[in-house]
Amino acid sequence: MVNNRLLATKFHIPPWRTNGVPRSRLVNRITTGLVEKRKLTLISAPAGYGKTTVLIDWIHTFGKDLNVVWISLDEGDNDPLRFLDYFISAFRFIGESIGQSAQILSSLPQHPPLQVILDELLNDLATLESQVVLVLDDYHTISNPHIHEALEYFIEHQPTQLHLAIITREDPPLPLPRMRSRGQMTEIRAYDLRFTLDEASVFFNQSMHLDLAVETISKLETRTEGWAVGLQLAALALQNLPNPYEFIQTFHGTHRYVLDYLAEEVLRQQNEEIRNFLFQTAVLEKFNASLCNAITGRSDSHDLLLQIEQINLFIIPLDNERIWYRYHHLFADFLKTGLTKIEQAQLLVKASQWYEENDLVIEAVKHSFLSKNIEMTANVIERVIQKASAWSGGEITTLVGWLDALPSQLFESKPALCLHASRAWYIAGRINLSEKSLDLADQFLKECSTSDLQTKTLLGIAAERRAALAIIHGDLTFAIERANYALDQLPEKNLYDRARAIAMIGLAYGLKGDLEQASRFLIKASDLSHTVGVSYTIMATRCEAALMQITQGKLHLATQTIQKATQLAGEKQIPTFGFKWYVLAEIALEQNDLASAEKLLMDGINISKQGVLIDDLRLELMTFAHLKKSTGDFTAALSAIEQAHSICQSLEIPRFVTLSNAHRVRIQLANGMTELANKWAQEYQDLRNSHPVEYTREYEDITLARVFFVNGDNDKALELLTPLYEQAKVEGRFRTCIEVAILLSLINVAKVKTDLAIQWLSNAVKLAEPEGFLRLFLNEGTFISELLPKVRQAAPRFVDKLLQAFSLQNTNQKTIFPANDKLISPLSEQELRVLKLIVLGKSNQEIAEELFISIGTAKWHVHNILQKLGVNNRPQAIALAREMDI
Q1: Nearest-angstrom CA–CA distance, 46 and 313
Q2: Own/partner pairs for 103-110, CB < 8 Å, 24+ apart?
Q3: Mean of the pLDDT values across residues 741-762?
Q4: Does 824 score more than 70 pLDDT?
Q5: Is the Cβ–Cβ distance between 553 and 513 less than 8 Å?
Q6: Coil vs helix vs strand at 42
């Protein structure tokens, strides 16, 4: 019989809610603990996480056949004897004799030690034949150390028939680590109690009858972080609201329901020291002890954080070492209401200073922006953007975002900010803005003393920037002069800026065609960048060097260069990895590994888009177009080349536009679009004659020679290609030599000079064999494959491999394009595509849009198709195409 001095309602098990949300994953975990004879189930989480509800759900589901006894504790139970009275009396519900001796001992005026009393109770419990579960609810209200000691003793000696469940807002001072290591405890914590999206859906739509859309529930689940009471408060607020979506957008810790709950249930119960600490640190999205010390002026934040974590004050550890934390978002919102805007700004300024001192530049700028002090923010950005660490990960999108957020007038008196902003905008492809920013810095620097070290450093950076922009425009002599001037001005300790200047020299030499010199400078820049840990530049400069090596015909060396870049830059994915995948795709494409090339290019394109590296994306799309051309997918090829060309036009750099036009012409030539190719050839010849340049136009010149060849102007093609071959051979551009030699072979076949054709093709296979250049031959089609057996002796294994690749390529193309030998004249690949669209009923305009061609070209193709089919109109063409099954 229960002691009359005790409150009977404290033993009542709370009722189970018939419309509650099933928490089967948690219920099963508790059951597993009982089956495995663990001593304790600890359910520890902040207020409102549904701790008690989970245990009630378990009792209703699995505990009906067990003896479950319950004690609801409060602050009044901190007296050891009162606690012991409740503790012993709870077991009397199982049987009158259980705990009787212990209760007699505890009622004596001179009672024995608590352990002696507990021994009597433990002996009685050991005689039980069935399993008993004792639940201690709200154990966080117990603070008396003697009670904790007594409970620890009880747990240590409790019989296997007994299982203890503790529900608490904070971890009790029991030997939890020891029990955890011995597998004696089941733990359920806040992150376990968070409602999943499915559970939240059941709650809103079944328990609360709100009939919300999944997207709406998802937003609420995210906003509340699955906090049970947060969901319930949101549900209460949503009832009778005409526009749930509008409410969700504004639901946060300042909502009156949340405010009332947190104020009453959480904050009011803390002492003033804890409350002040919570208010001050609430402005931080994440924090550690050192940061908390910096903004609060305390020196004991580490101890306070451990205390706050122990009492489960909505704090979430962000790492296993318990160094970084954050608050539950709704709790943080609530805490911020205890600060004025001025107080919040002052704390954020201190946080920004701490982040900057600890070289966490992104966080420093972020907190500076949050403080709303825009002048200070500009100063912070100017300081941090000069650090190598700001550039290391290649977060160009972040840097540009900062700069765009600053008022333009703040740049006028900050030359360092202008110079580094120029670099960021340059990398992001915003060339005009990069030049304007550099001009602004130059105006300021003209008025400064050139003997000042800081000014000399800024002049050096400005010269490096001028070199970069000169390279973009093809002014290579000026670029090399400016880069060397930069090296004269920059102090030896400015390793990153010096690396950039050296890289500019390398790029300039590369455009001049001196690839050996270019590679040396670029690798030197990469090594220097490695010294200061700038992964972005390590990768970018070595990738540029690898591209030079591909043109030199050194595919294996290029692969090794990329491998070294990865080793130096580290495995962490950064935006320039897109450039890396692009270079590896170029190598794979040259060796005819089309599947690998496509996978690498797709990865590269995705990364470059994410990092907003426009120039990398331009290169990747052009190569992707050529890859698709190789597989016969001209629709995809034309689409990709148009995207690349659009990027070049948006950059407003004539050199890039001319080059992308040449790439587009090669796709058009392979697709039978000779009219467009001829138009380009005329425009390019005019440009070539009127605007001589110091950079090589090798790719464009070879493309022009191809147009001449297609039109039968063989002598014009020879006039271009012969000196080009000799120059490329002298300067070591052997990939160029291979391509030109193949073309010269084809031209001599057309001129019926078979011996010369064999001689040129023999030269090509000898140059191509060591590195496995296959694609250059496969691109030229049937004529080369028929000539190859005649040069087999030059490189037998390589020629056999080429012939095998040709055979496979021809088989694949026959699969894609049906035979049409019954026609007056065979249809080209592009004409077959146009015919397919005619059969589908597409108009000329729709055909043009589908195939990324002009409407004039579409009409021209339709006209040719009607002639080749020998019909007068579209309906006749459709009927004949179906009849011939083409």
Answers
A1: 6
A2: 103/3, 106/81
A3: 92
A4: no
A5: no
A6: strand
